[in-house]
Design a protein that fits this description.
It is a single chain. With 261 residues, the chain is mainly alpha-helical. It has helices spanning 2-6, 9-22, 27-39, 43-56, 61-73, 77-90, 95-107, 111-124, 129-141, 145-158, 163-175, 179-186, 197-210, 214-227, 232-245, 248-260. Helix 6 (77-90) packs antiparallel against helix 7 (95-107).
Length: 261
Amino acid sequence: GAHYGRGEWDAAAALLRQLLEEAPEVARAWFLLGVVEGARGRFSAASDALRRALALAPDDSESRHLFAKALARDGRATEAIAEYERLLSRAPGIAVAQTELGALLQGQGDIDTAIECHRAALAADPQLVAALNNFGAACRAAHRPGEALAALERASALDPGRPEILLNLGNVLKDLGRLEEAALVYGRQTRTSSPLDAELAAARGGVLARLARQSEAISALERAVRADPNNVGALGRLIREREQGCDWSTVDLLARQARDL
């Protein structure tokens, strides 16, 4: 318990496996091992442990939900969808599971069913930020910008600094031709070192370039490239903006960097 509470995942996994060698019939121990393996990024091991937990306690909604999530994180979308559907057939009010299923279905190209899942999630919990964000993204994919904008503005009001919301909201504003607002939204991130840093900065740089605000565009694109040197789109846009400003030494350096990717 102490290892698990402090987040010392390797020690916790070893302790749980030792316990399970002595008492393999303890479903809760298999569940906790699944939690720990997921925290270690070992999603295949997590799903194996949770499968064992469910074999011992098949009606445990918590284990089935985590099992579905582990399968999804392990790239096994079809199996994950089946487990989410099994879970929700018994407990349709689990809002977060509804929207997670919707996100998976959207990834499979089933946008209409994804939207219905997000609607069900929001019916169960109208303030669920993940569902608002996912619903907005799905509506944008379905070319329903009005609904997308309303959902994403609500999500942003509830969680102003979440990078994925800012990216989706900025994208909808850009689609609507509201470029000044999009640039502001892309630049509004308050959380640092997000994996989406590069995407947000690149998107802002692209919009600023369209607004002919070259120096700001270059600054944003440089930030994108620093955050993710493999972002070829941001690097190409930065080269084009530098070319317009005739900073040839920097252009040459960037061009060599692009060739090396």
